[in-house]
Amino acid sequence: MSDEHLTRHIMAQSNFTYGQDPKPLQVKAVINLVRGRHTFLLAGTGFGKSRVSEMFFKLYPCHKKAVTLVLNPLDTLGDNQVAEKLQMGMSAVNLTKMTLNEAMAARIINGEYSFVYMSPEAFLNNPIFTALFFNPTFQNRLALVVVDEGHMIYMWGLVASGKSKKLSSHSRHEDRAVYRPSYGKIGHRLLATNGTPVLIQSATCRPLAIKAILESLRILPEDIDILQGELTRPEIRLIRVDMEHSLGSCDDLLAQFADIADTSNDELVPMLIYSTKVVSKVVHEARGIVDGHEDPFSQCCRRFHAVTGDLDKELAVKEFAEGVYPMISATMALGLGQNWSRVRSVIHMGRGDPASIAQMIGRCGRDGRPGLGIIFVEKNRKNGKNRVDQFPDPENQGDDDRMDALAITPVCLRIAFSLDNLIGYIPLSFDDPNYRREKAREEACGFLECLCSNCHPEYAAWLMANLRRLNIGNFTSLVTSNPPPLTLAPIGPPSPRFQEHFDSMGCTNELEAEDLFSIRSARAIANCVDGISKPELRRIIGGDIVRGQVDMLFDCVMGFKSGPAYLAYATRKSQEESEIMQRMETLRNARAVELRRTELARQARAEQARAARMETQERRRIAAASKAAEAERKRLRRIDNAFHLNHFKAIAKAKADARVEGGEIPNQSSMGESSSGGPASSDQ
């Protein structure tokens, strides 16, 4: 089949499955795999890389029972993708140490699962899977091998080679520093796939990393096609902030979140905060939630770290996806490959590897809506480079140099991340030829104007100053717009009323408005505005500080309550309360039904248990009676046997005595009796 016919078939199949046209790069990747070519798909987060393997699988007829083997770095990622495949009507399984056994291996060989997810450790070291992998039937079914998040081969390969010990950027990301050398040894096993194409997927891979990955997988450059899509995410606004406090304290976050009295947890922007420090404690402190970080079921922020238990991780991921709580304090592993459309903002604490930070920030805005990425960086790093003039060769940067360059570069952050992905370094000058070319390309592609903190520092400062006011309702408008220029009205002559007030008060400034009516009093009034009375108002503010203050405030409150805004609020609140009462009544009824059902079930179980006990007692009684009857029969039988035995002995003795008296010679037994002590015969 020609490429043209194959393209039409793939597009028709995609339209039938997903209801939309596939992207040209997705089609090209599928065609490559059909031709048996290894493929490295390099595309930005949210591109839809996981669909490529699905589209390729759909080309196989059902009776072939083709199998796609997917290697991923995390079990939670496999669980997430299995759930997505099941929603698409495809059979899938995530092989972990709890699920991989002989029975599961037999089902996989029989072709019961179209997608098999597993970790590199299980792929290489599990004896059950080793036998499964080299089974001829499985090899015939194996259609594709996918290495998901391929950049992890390079990152964890640094650990296996020992190079990571000298890199500060590597240890700053907890999950990268984990010793997982298996990711660097996948190539040995892939040599036995008998020509099965390999699909490598990643969103961030420098040329140096791509070269190292291909060497690790034993794939020659001429045997693989590298397909590169758009890596820039123009819908994400990037803000870099110099930290005022230490990285260990994370106190820079204290000013970024509003008190829970001002913004409820339900209104907070869904957010991921990447750090290995005490983020959860600081966030709860900023929100005014006492000891909230010690609550594993916090409705504000939870943790997803290496020391977090597996069950807690599963619950945290599940409830975050369901919208139970808005923020997670996590390490790099969280969100790896997850398709969470609700994440709107990502915060990264401290300097770090640019490729890893790009991965983390790319987890927001996946639904096409604007996202916000905030990078808090230390002003100075010990033994690091903290000024542009400390880079003698800006285009030749090591891993630590790239980390430091991202923290101090004056150029557009969006272009900096793009060039790091494309070429492998962070530009430090506006005159950099690669920077100019990338900037011209973005303009030619019609990208939105970049609003990063380097392109518009004054707008970024305004956004950070108002970050605590962000909520779900105003997030898009605040992130995508900039404050209008402030035009001050010309100063004219004072009004007569103001002049009279000024003359009466004089030019003293002993009292300020905050002294007479504080924001705390205003919030207290707002909290009980529904049923407030003048005595209650007087109690709240502590009486008149200025004569007539209570009357004036009460008139203001009554005027507000009679206005359209409050009436609309009251109507909406009444409707919500009515809906809540209806739901509560429904829940109460359902609970009553459930309790009744539970009680009936309990009674039925009790009745069954009682009947079983009675039946057991009856069986025991019958058994005891049978045993007693049998014992009585045996006793009577013994008595009868003894009677007959004695009777026979008496008859025998009588006969013997009669023979002796008649002069008959006694038999041998009688002689035996005589010789043993009986009387001697007359012959003797």
From TrEMBL:
- Source domain of life is Eukaryota
Task: List the GO biological process terms.
Answer: double-strand break repair via homologous recombination
What sort of enzyme, by top EC class, is this?
isomerase
Domain Helicase ATP-binding as annotated: residue spans: 30-223
Region labeled Disordered — which residues?
Answer: 656-684
Q: What does the record list as coiled-coil region(s)?
A: 597-634
Catalytic activity reported: Couples ATP hydrolysis with the unwinding of duplex DNA by translocating in the 3'-5' direction
Q: Which Pfam families match?
A: DEAD, Helicase_C
InterPro entries found in the cross-reference section? DEAD/DEAH_box_helicase_dom, Helicase_ATP-bd, Helicase_C-like, P-loop_NTPase
Q: Which UniProt keywords apply?
A: ATP-binding, Coiled coil, DNA-binding, Isomerase, Nucleotide-binding
Stretches of Polar residues bias are at 666-684
Q: Which GO terms describe its molecular function?
A: 3'-5' DNA helicase activity; ATP binding; DNA binding; four-way junction helicase activity
- Identify this protein by name: DNA 3'-5' helicase
